Amino acid sequence: MTATFPVAVLGACVVAAAGAGAGGGMYLTQRGVESVVPVSVDRAATATTRAFDELKIHQTKSATEQEADGEQREVEGTAGDREISVTIKAEQTNSSRVQVVAKKSAVTWDKDYARTILDRIVAYSR
User: Fold this and answer.
1) Is residue 55's pLDDT more than 80?
2) Rounded to two decimals, what is the model's pTM?
3) Under 8 Å between Cβ of 35 and 117
4) What sign results for the dihedral spanned by CA atoms 126, 46, 49, 16?
5) 77: nearest Cα among 94, 43, 44, 54
6) What is the C-alpha to C-alpha distance for residues 66 and 31, in angstroms, rounded to an integer?
7) Which CATH architecture fits 23-125?
8) 74-85: average pLDDT
């Protein structure tokens, strides 16, 4: 007897193969990577700054917003020909959703470099 299974098409994000021990895993998005990290927004933001320093990313912007569903931070920078954007949103008590995008041009993104940055953020969050 042969069983058939439907194939699901995933739109905005696809589960990536493991992710540096980050909370529930690392996910590829259309433009980068994201993960839920089991730390506060403050701690994730501090880890982002350390990751930028280590990877020689020049920070160009940092902003904090208080939204109805919690705090959100945006950190931006440049590294060579890439524009880096990190968004950190409060997910639950002491958890943050961290999204990293490494833009190379108006229509291309470097997901491998974004993953490297997110790996460093997760490592420094511990």
Assistant:
1) yes
2) 0.80
3) no
4) positive
5) 54
6) 25
7) 2-Layer Sandwich (3.30)
8) 97
